Amino acid sequence: MVKIANVEVGEFPLILSPMDDITDMPFRSLCKPYGVDMLITEFIAADGIIREADKSRKKMTFSEGERPIAVQIFGHDESSLLQSLEFVEAVNPDFIDINWGCPVKKVAGRGAGSGILKDIPKMIAITDAIVKKSKLPVTVKTRIGYEETNKPIVEVAERLQDVGVQALSIHGRTKTQMYKGDADWTLIGKVKENPRMTIPIFGNGDITSAEIALEKKNRYGVDGILIGRGAIGNPWIFEQTKRLIAGLPQREIPIAERVEVCKKHLLAAIDWKGERTAVMEMRKHYGGYFKGIPDFKQFRIPLVTYSTLDELLPIFDAVADYYSA
User: Fold this and answer.
1) What is the mean pLDDT of residues 243-264?
2) Taking each helix axis from N to C terminus, what angle separates 120-133 and 153-162, rounded to the nearest 10 degrees?
3) Which fold has domain 255-324?
4) pLDDT of 225 strictly over 90
5) For 188, 189, 239, 266, which has the most beta carbons within 10 A of its beta carbon?
6) Alpha helices in 134-234 (DSSP H)
7) Which residues are bridge partners to 8 per DSSP?
8) Could you give the angle at the alpha carbon of 269 between the alpha carbons of 265 and 274, nearest 5°?
9) Annotated catalytic sites, by residue?
10) Is residue 150 very low, low, confident or very high in pLDDT (cuts 50, 70, 90)?
């Protein structure tokens, strides 16, 4: 059983990787019944937490059924990050996760997220300060380095462990790669193989199927896996991965179930963030929910163009009827 501090997170934990405007509470709660072992909130700016901005507060909200869960924070200023801890601790997640991995310009360009990988001493110093002040176990998500000529993750992992980080998630790309090219799992494997490392090491990057997840588990010996883009519109990937690891036959996901879960997701998202925002953000998920279904174009176009619930609900019914005939 893998533990983060004293919290059990599964035999081989499958973790829903945090993604902005994707892994909100409605989607996290939807993935839970399909086998997610641990959840992480969307990343939240420390500055927004301190200002008690409505969006930041909402992102910290989770249900008891989502545990174990981490609230993920990001920022470039030590003072702001430390001030945010009081607010995060008030909602009582199981862990506080520091995002040292986001590569997008508005985050990394300010020295937050994976931008910190240009200044490893600062990264370690801020992490050390957070660990010392936090009342909760602290974990970190990061990348293998800043650029192709600078991939110091093996050393960085040791230093993060030395200042008290309780688990480390590693995305196998550099900051400059963004999400292009292939994730390099060899360096994730080297971190795990390092005899000095005793904390759980979780791998991340390019996990788009249960078969790939099993291959990474067997080849690199990681303690668990984060699944990000492969889970968008596809909560079944966690069930499929668990069944494959356990040597069980796969269950084909009926189209009726895909429709039902997708509609449930849409309705929950509307309750959570309002119709306009939810309808727009759900467009990111439809490709996953209905991937591989033949003759689906007639339904796909209205799904990604209609803008109200009243317009969309008949489409779900039409899909269910068409493929049950």
Assistant:
1) 95
2) 30
3) 1.10.1200
4) yes
5) 188
6) 153-162, 185-193, 210-220
7) 3
8) 150
9) 102
10) confident
Residues 207 and 205: their CA atoms lie apart, in Å, by 6
**pTM score of the predicted model:** 0.94
Closest among 164, 138, 2 to 70, alpha carbons compared: 138
- The whole-angstrom separation of Cα 90 and Cα 86 is 6
Q: What tens digit of pLDDT does each residue of 294-316 get?
A: 999 999 999 999 999 999 999 99
What number of other Cβ atoms are within 10 A of residue 69's Cβ? Answer: 24
Among candidates 157, 173, 279, which has minimal Cα distance to 223? Answer: 157
SS3 label, residue 243:
helix
- For residues 279 and 270, the answer to whether their CB atoms sit within 8 Å is yes
3-state secondary structure of 255: helix
Question: Cα–Cα distance between 22 and 93 in angstroms, integer?
Answer: 19
Cα of first residue to Cα of last residue in the chain, in angstroms, is 46
Give the relative orientation of helices 309-324 and 255-273 as an angle to the nearest 10 degrees.
170
**Kindly report the CA angle at 11 between 158 and 29, in degrees rounded to 5?**
100
- Give the SS3 label for residue 267: helix
Q: Report whether pLDDT(325) > 70.
A: no
* Fold entry, domain 3-245: TIM Barrel (3.20.20)
What is the phi/psi pair of residue 225, to 5°? Answer: -135, 140
- How is the chain split into domains, by residue range? 3-245, 255-324
Mean pLDDT, the chain, as a whole number? Answer: 95
Residues 114/147, Cβ–Cβ less than 8 Å: no
Percent of all residues in the chain with a pLDDT value above 90, rounded to a whole number: 94
Find, among 196, 211, 314, 257, the residue nearest to 33 by Cα. Answer: 257
C-alpha separations of 198 from 19, 39, 69, 168 in Å: 27, 22, 21, 11
pLDDT value of position 140:
98
Sign of CA dihedral 91, 93, 283, 108: positive
Contact 214, 183 (CB under 8 A): no
